[in-house]
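[step 3/7] inverse_fold.run input=structure_tokens len=119
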């Protein structure tokens, strides 16, 4: 398990449907991933050695600026909350709207169950 503090300062976090988790982009060129089931942060990707850190950082910041607002989150729901949503038939989007578990809100935000690849 990776510690956030072991990778410098945190630049930003975002929810990724592709990676199915919460991502933390770190100042040392590391991207960490966390899910409710991972038990903590895990290294997901690292900057290539031949890419200068400043260029990598600028590229990641530009990526973050292009993200939809619904992806700019800092926490994920607990495993217990996700289980409730799986069985209740009502889930939350990343922006807090109540929707069907496999749905998207009016703002395009997916349910957390979709983001985390649970349905």
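[step 3/7] decode complete -> sequence:
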């Amino acid at each position: 398990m990776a510690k956030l503090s072991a990778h410098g300062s945190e630049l930003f976090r975002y929810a990724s449907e592709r990676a199915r988790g919460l991502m933390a982009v770190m100042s040392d060129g590391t991207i960490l991933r966390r899910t409710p089931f991972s038990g903590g942060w895990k290294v997901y990707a690292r900057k290539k050695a031949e890419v200068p850190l400043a260029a990598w950082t600028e590229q990641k910041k530009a990526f973050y600026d292009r993200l939809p607002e619904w992806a700019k989150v800092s926490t994920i729901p607990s495993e217990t909350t996700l289980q409730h949503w799986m069985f209740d038939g009502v889930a939350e989007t990343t922006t807090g709207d109540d929707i069907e578990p496999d749905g998207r809100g009016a703002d395009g935000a997916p349910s957390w169950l979709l983001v985390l690849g649970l349905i």
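[step 4/7] annotate
The helical segments are 53-66, 79-88, 112-115.
Residues 53-66 form the longest helix (14 residues).
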